[in-house]
Amino acid sequence: VGSFPSVTTILSGSRDNSGLEQWRESVGHERADFISSFACFRGEGHHLNIERYLTDGTEPEFSYAFSPYWKSSRAFLDTVDAPLLLEGAIWHPDGFAGTLDCIAYLAEDGHQPTLLDWKTRENGPCKPDKIYEYSLQLAAYTAGANYVYGHMGLNITQAKIVVAIADASPQIETLDERALSQLYKHFLARLKRFTYAKQKRKRK
Fold first, then answer.
1. DSSP labels for the chain?
2. Which of 60, 107, 164, 191 could form a disulfide with 69 if both were Cys (CB 3.0 to 4.6 A apart)?
3. pLDDT tens column, 168-177
């Protein structure tokens, strides 16, 4: 909306990227670019497969690139009773915008929908620092969704990060209302840091 930055831009522009830079130096920039590009390609394909399945029940054809992650997520998708929103645009007057993956009713939810975010990982579960970054993202998406769609009666109080791990069970992290509220405060602090750094660059 307007000139609001995206949630992912805010988070990537306000974290300590020294570890990432060290990794790029260790593997070489060309190799690092390839790995990053393939991870994006893999994630986009996984999102598309899930979106198609939740829309019309289409099972994806076998693919060496995507099938290991589809296999990981498939059982969880059976718990999705009814998707309410796929790839939904959100924004918030606090100063951010974005696109969430999914809001759906899960079998365990009853009448309370859950915000879902799909991730992929090649080897093993995500480390706590990565889950924290994802959690900040979901807290922002939840606040934005409740702001944009609240007039329609939507009030999200739970979110789940569903990390598809190649040929393994998914890593599922659940954030309740209290956690989302606290994490949103952390996100606003990151937004403030991002905005300050952006203004500082403009003054140079």
1. -TTPPBHHHHHHTSS--HHHHHHHHHH-HHHHHHHHHHHHHHHHHHHHHHHHHHHH-PPPPP-TTTHHHHHHHHHHHTTEEEEEEEEEEEEETTTEEEEEEEEEEETTTTT--EEEEEEEESSSPPPHHHHHHHHHHHHHHHHHHHHHHGGGT-----EEEEEEETTSPPEEEEE-HHHHHHHHHHHHHHHHHHHHHHHHHHH-
2. 164
3. 999 999 999 9
